[in-house]
Amino acid sequence: MNCLSRRLIPNLTLNFPSINLSFYSKPIFIHQKGKLTSNTAITSSIYYPLSGVEDDLVGYVFGKKKATEVAHLIWKHVVRNGDTVIDATCGNGYDTLAMLKLVADESGRGHVYGMDIQRDALESTSSLLDESVPLKEKESVTLFSICHSRMEEIVPENSPVRLVAFNLGYLPGGDKKITTISETTRLALEAAKKILIPGGLISLVVYVGHPGGMEELETVEAFASGLSVDSWICCKFQILNRPLAPVLVLLSKREIAETQ
Known about the structure:
Structural class: alpha/beta
Strand order of the largest sheet: 2-3-11-12-10-9-6-7-8
Distance between the termini: 19 Å
Number of strands: 12
């Protein structure tokens, strides 16, 4: 009789030329028949939301995809029509627009909640949406001029959030002295952790080339490292020979069935 076994994979780092793909420890469930050997075929009994993105990751490894592009491609494997999602740092609106295209449907249930502390960012986001989507579709986006650490205040109670996305750094084309900071980012991650549904994703592109950027990355890494391996899958994508290149961090909340 087939049985369900649980194995713990140790911390794993895959070193491609100049690329560091770091995965935190995570248990996986596999079916096996009889004794497991090196020739035993292993098939996962659980669907992981990050499966099916091999081509996208290969593009990143060989310099064909940017961290932001990989993030957007991975979102497509997580977000569904009608979902509630959060853009925690609107910037110039490109993430907000990408999210809207993923959640919008004829039912109008899907919604994007966007926030930024800079008025210029919200105006840029609104203008991009005006140029890119019909007015009816834009109604599925609500923008707030607040710190992302307060995201719990703007999402309606009992709204299942599938994705929370961050671009950490400064507003492109804006005042480089105004940046996200470690303390409010930590609080925002704690808030995102609370409201994200099983199967959801916290996505962060961390820009480290400005003062405080490396410290903020360390804050994100510390938060991710402290998440339970029973409930979360956390990984980081970093180009080693470009130390100031953006770093992509993905925190995937396990489906409930995965922990049973």
